[in-house]
Amino acid sequence: MVASFFGRQTNSPKAEDVLPAADRFDRIVQVELMRADRSESQFCLAVFDTVACREQVPPADFRFAEYILNRLRATDHAGCLGGGRIGVVLWNTDEDGARKFVNQVLEDCPIRPLPAVELFTHPSGEPVDLDRVRNKRGTKDSDDSDSDGAMPVRPLEELLLNPMPRWKRTLDVVGAAVGIVALSPLLFATALLIKLTSPGPIFFLQKRDGWGGKPFSILKFRTMYRDAEQRKAALRAQSEQDGPAFKMANDPRITPIGRFLRKSCIDELPQLWNVLKGDMTLVGPRPLDSREAAECEVWQRRRRWITPGLTCIWQVHGKSKVPFKEWMRMDIRYIRARSLWNDAALIIRTAFAVILHRGSH
Fold first, then answer.
1. Which of 40, 68, 322, 343 could lock onto 283 through a cystine, CB 3.0 to 4.6 A?
2. Helix/strand/coil for 86
3. Quick one: 69 and 188 in the same domain?
4. Which stretches of sequence are listed as region Disordered (predicted)?
5. Alpha carbon distance 169, 280 (integer Å)
């Protein structure tokens, strides 16, 4: 007998009675992700949606959970995903093997109608389709078959992408709007100084990787001479940041006023407009140059699961003093611990880091 809210009791069994609950299964999937990345192996995740099944006593998800347990190999894992969905991790299984598993499961499935199925794989060479992700979250039904009639296998990233929480988007809109209005005198003065001290545009636009890898144009005050991008390749060997990112303390491409703007982080303030548009958030992993992001290892691309931000853990821990892989680990750690209180703490710590000019070039 299972306890429910307000101390009431119910005899109705649930899938969670025989399978790991959603939060525990999420941790299992995360462990499998790390294991696959370290061993350069592949695994698939089959998601069975029983919500449309008409089984009532016992519920369809419970009957399917009992059934699926007897179909697993010793290396596989099954668990609840919430909303009547049950996931099955198929370790060291390619796309054809995953389709074969699903067909065998549905052949003898004890519930009717048969559950809807989606297949995901990691790693995947297929790019994330953000429109498909948004449509999936808006409706349960879709035509989920390839042109040859086979069940498609999507990148696992499509399932794990984290949408922006409502509280966070509200904080972004209010914070960015207030920031733009309050800092408008400083923004206008900075724009005038840039125009008067060096030829070229006031703003610098660059393609960066956003949520799910979608590129967007980041907006910054220009701190370099106009030919900076052309000179970057020649300076690559002098980068103080390991990995694909480029960081250099005495970068000769920086203008005199640009050095001050970088040290004070004033050059980043136009990104409040990116936040207001929704391309960025106040707190989140810093977006990488799209060319640098393409050089990241598979596990490092998990930072794209959430919207990039103005500041994150890396900004308050020394920036270029931190090895690139540790920077990526910091971003991934933030994803797991994202909350209103953590965001507030990071904003406060970032303010102190800016005042102390810690790690800024």
1. 343
2. strand
3. no
4. 122-152
5. 10
The C-alpha atoms of residue 360 and residue 319 are separated, in whole angstroms, by 7
DSSP label of 355:
H
The 10s digit of each residue's pLDDT in 286-311 is 999 888 888 888 888 888 889 999 99
pLDDT given at position 290: 86
Asked if residues 268 and 220 have their Cβ atoms less than 8 Å apart, the reply is: yes
Which residues face 90 on adjacent strands? Answer: 44
The boundaries of the domain holding residue 298 are 166-355
Confidence tier at 131 by pLDDT (50, 70, 90)? confident
Bridge partner residues of 208 (DSSP): 216, 289
Q: Give residues with Cβ within 8 angstroms of 328, minimum separation 6.
A: 296, 299, 300, 303
What tens digit of pLDDT does each residue of 63-113 get?
Answer: 899 999 988 988 999 999 988 899 999 999 999 999 999 999 999 888 888
Token pair in block for residue 325: 């892989």
Same structural domain, 220 and 155: no
Confidence label for 13 from pLDDT (cuts 50, 70 and 90)? confident
pLDDT for residue 263: 86
Amino acid found at 21: A
Give me the DSSP letters along 105-148. HHHT--SSSPPEEEEEEES-SSPP-HHHHHHHHH-S------TT
d(CA 35, CA 311): 29
- Could you report the per-residue pLDDT of 203-251, keeping only the tens digit for each? 999 999 999 888 999 999 999 887 777 777 777 766 666 667 767 677 7
Same domain for 206 and 326?
yes
Q: Within this chain, do residues 327 and 179 fall inside the same structural domain, yes or no?
A: yes
Q: How many whole angstroms from its chain centre is CA 15?
A: 28
From residue 76, how far is each of 50, 87, 124 by CA, in Å? 20, 11, 19
What gap in Å lies between CA 322 and CA 353, rounded to an integer?
Answer: 15
